[in-house]
Amino acid sequence: MKSGVYVFIFALLLFSCSDLKKKAPQRPLLSLPVIKVQKMNITGFQMITANIEGTINDEVRPKISGFITKVYIDEGQRVKKGQLLFKLETLAVNQDALAAKANLQSATIEVEKIKPLVKEGIISKRELETATALQTSAKATYNGVLAQIDYGNVRAAIDGIVGEIPFRVGSLVSPSDIEPLTTVSELNEVYAYYSMNEKEYLSFLRNTQGSSVREKIKNFPKVKLILADDSEYDQEGTVETTTGQIDTQTGTVSFRARFPNPNGLLNNGNSGFIKIPQQYNEVLVVPEQSTFENQTIVYVFSVKESDTVVQKAITPIRRINNLLLIKDGLNEGEQIVGQGVSKIGNGTKIHPVVTPFDTIASSTETIFKSN
After folding, report:
1. Residues 50-82: pLDDT tens digits?
2. Which residue, 300, 367, 282, is CA-closest to 340?
3. How confident is the model over 268-295, as pLDDT tens digits?
4. Per-residue pLDDT reduced to its tens digit, 171-201
5. Going by fewer Cβ within 10 Å, which terminus of the chain is more open, N or C?
6. What phi and psi values does residue 183 have, to the nearest 5 degrees?
7. What is the pLDDT of residue 76?
């Protein structure tokens, strides 16, 4: 009798559990935004360290040795061609000038004394010719010494801005000195020198129109300059030339860009970054927040017709702020999870909410220029 009761109670429990399972509510699917992979024409930017120099840099050097007695200019001052910059002591040369002048006067007197004697036939013309030759030599010597004296007046060879002045009054200077008295730079325009590594240089050759390096340089787009305070210089630059040769020590190729400098903001020794545009045409793009990484491999969740997500590896070309440019692994128009990739796993079923691409990548227009 008791066994029958136990059987009845056990059956009742099984029925109750089965009934509870039928009545238990199912967990709702996670709603996530879904976007379509797009192709775009995008201009990104590469930043390369640059050094600024004047288009003309004239090193001011003395032509004679001597002590500086006067400095007429100051650092940063604008000077004109021929303007006096430094005065050098020339006492020794002055003494040579006095001797040369006396020698010239003596030779001149001799010539004037011989002239009437030749006229009267007392002495021959040959003696006059000899005296005249000595006078000419004495005059050349005297003029040469005068030129030496003028070398003590150091003048600007070009219009420009005075750079650092390492020597002051009392300094002994010489033409053989390694360091110049100063540098005068023409700064109406400036050069920005920068370098690309070998990989970047090959990319430049492949992606720039032209059958030769010269043509490619000519077709290279205008570049911008980012200054040391992170501000963007308001003038565009033109890339003019490249060495075209790999420096064996640095592994880089040097380039030179010319920038207008109407307000004199740029000066010798300034540094900054060249901002080089890089055009990507018809490239697949996804928002970076739609991706995730696992052991350096980048993935997205592709959404299938069953609303199940499948983890897919992709190969990025480049990350630029909030967008990822894709080389392969995806197709245009393919649906992927736009946000919330950290909430799901491979094979998860979701409730897809179709969302415009720009809603997820809302800052795209402020970072890139699209055609």
Report:
1. 999 988 889 999 988 889 999 999 998 999 999
2. 300
3. 889 999 998 887 888 899 999 999 998 8
4. 999 899 999 999 998 889 999 999 998 888 8
5. N
6. -130, 130
7. 87
Of 6, 30, 28, 48, nearest to 195 by C-alpha is 48
Mean pLDDT of the chain: 82
Q: Are 318 and 15 in contact (CB under 8 A)?
A: no
Position 93 scores a pLDDT of: 59
